[in-house]
Write a structure and sequence with these properties.
By secondary structure, this protein is mainly alpha-helical. The protein contains 15 helices and four strands.
């Protein structure tokens, strides 16, 4: 009994969002009869699937103490490539790899600019956000374009009774968790995010790790775009607008530090599901859709302030010993610069 209680306590300490999600689901189910149905929970999971896929990629980036503001625009450009390829007669077997490759290229461009030049990621991805959205608008002519029926299966189909988007999100989350826990790349991500200079001094391939993180984020943004566009059945000029804030909020809500070096894919998945559940709950309550923007912004602000206070307390304590938060015997590394690189 003591061992079981310890296991539960440790699990809740690692993933405090799980009981929050559970309690909120119970409260909303009791308040609105239709919320607690199996069909609605399935719908929440389907809606959250593109967010989960993209947020796993963002977790890689934020773990390096970086940020990617272009994910929403990558969403749009990848969807534009999808529909334009289909309209010229390309079969689905070629369209899907083309879209994912487009995401990979966009992410790699971000990674090269950040990793090789050390220009702050905030500036780089703010610029590419405009470039990618402009390119998507040029391809679509800023018009709504229907997704051909042959491509909609990835967003609306089922396999063994389970929606394809949920299966894809689960596969991405599982693979992302394995990368963090079982590979040297995952360990390097944490080391680079904790202290980039110390990681370089230790001989780690810092630039390759940073470029790889952004490249994977772009690839997963492309995959997320495929599922979202197929689920909606059309690509609109507004697709992906403001999506970067939702993705970042899901990641930091799941416990990933904006200052890098700490986080988990499981937390990201729970954060994505929680945001999707909140959005659905607001629909049931009849609240204005702008309330979700308020909730999302408030959560992100609270997470930033909490991370800043935690970092300040940690650095103040370690300054007395002459060590950095990563344990290196050197001057503390200021979080303001590392969070933007």
């Amino acid at each position: 009994m003591n061992a079981a209680a310890t296991w539960v306590r440790d699990g809740l300490r690692r993933q405090p969002l799980f009981p929050v999600l559970l309690v909120m689901s119970v409260v909303l189910s009791a308040s609105y009869g239709g919320f607690g149905t199996t069909a609605n929970f399935r719908n929440i999971a389907v809606q959250a699937s593109p967010l989960i896929i993209s947020a796993v990629g963002m977790t890689f980036v934020i773990m390096t103490s970086g940020i990617d503001l272009s994910v929403g625009s990558m969403f749009f450009l990848a969807a534009a490539v999808e529909t334009s390829s289909a309209l010229v007669g390309e079969p689905a077997v070629l369209v899907f790899p083309a879209v994912i490759a487009t995401g990979l290229v966009m992410g790699t461009v971000n990674g090269l600019a950040v990793g090789l030049t050390r220009v702050p990621a905030l500036i780089v991805t703010l610029a590419t956000m405009q470039v990618y959205r402009g390119a998507g608008g040029h391809i679509t002519g800023q018009q709504d374009i229907n997704v051909p029926a042959s491509l909609r299966g990835i967003g609306t189909g089922t396999i063994l009774g389970l929606p394809v988007p949920i299966l894809l999100a689960a596969a991405v989350a599982l693979a992302g968790g394995m990368v963090f826990a079982r590979t040297s790349f995952g360990r390097h991500l944490q080391a680079v995010g904790s202290n980039r200079d110390a990681a370089a001094d230790a001989g780690l391939p810092v630039r390759r790790v940073v470029i790889g993180a952004y490249a994977l984020a772009g690839l997963l943004a492309g995959l997320g775009s495929l599922t979202e566009a197929a689920r909606l059945g059309a690509v609109q000029p507004s697709i992906g607008q403001g999506y970067e804030l939702t993705v970042i909020t899901a990641v930091v809500l799941g416990g990933t530090s904006l200052f890098g070096g700490r986080g988990s894919v499981t937390g990201t998945v729970l954060g994505s599901l929680l945001l999707s559940a909140v959005q659905t709950g607001l629909v049931f309550s009849g609240a204005s859709p702008y309330v979700f923007d308020i909730v999302r912004g408030s959560v992100l602000l609270a997470a930033v302030l909490a991370a800043a206070l935690r970092w300040r307390g940690l650095t103040d304590a370690l300054r007395l010993t002459g060590r950095t938060p990563s344990g290196e015997p050197r001057a503390p590394h200021h979080p303001t610069s590392s969070a933007l690189q």
